[in-house]
Amino acid sequence: MVAQGSGSPVVVVDERRRMAGRGAWLHPNEKCLALAIKRRAFGRALAGVTETTAVERFMSGMPLVEAPAATGKPSKPESGSEI
């Protein structure tokens, strides 16, 4: 996910991970999206973003991916902000 432009409240999906600007990661499942929206994580990770319609539309068109089962080991996030 990337903020659409400087000062824009809109977040867009950057599938190729090539767009300029600050980005954030989100697991590709609806539970993570719902939790990120509930916690207002997009606004914290992407400085003031409030409009998540594009992300919600993108996620609703994706096949659901279940979160991996807990193995007792902490997972390491990829570089960048992870939501």
Helix content: 25-40%
Number of strands: 4
Proportion of residues in extended strands:
5-15%
Unreliably modeled segments: 64-70
- Alpha carbon gap, first and last residue: 10 Å
- Kindly state the mean pLDDT as a whole number? 74
As a whole number of angstroms, the C-alpha radius of gyration is 13 Å
Summarize the helix and strand pattern as letters.
EEEHHHE
Largest sheet: 2 strands, antiparallel
The dominant shape is globular
If helices are DSSP runs of H or I spanning 4 or more residues, what is the number of helices?
3
Strand-pairing-aware structural class: alpha+beta
Give me the side-by-side strand order of the main sheet. Answer: 1-2
Structure description:
19% of the residues are buried. The protein is an alpha+beta fold and 83 residues long. The chain has helices at 30-38, 41-45, 53-60; strands spanning 2-3, 11-12, 24-25, 81-82. The protein has three helices and four strands. A two-stranded antiparallel ribbon has the order 1-2.
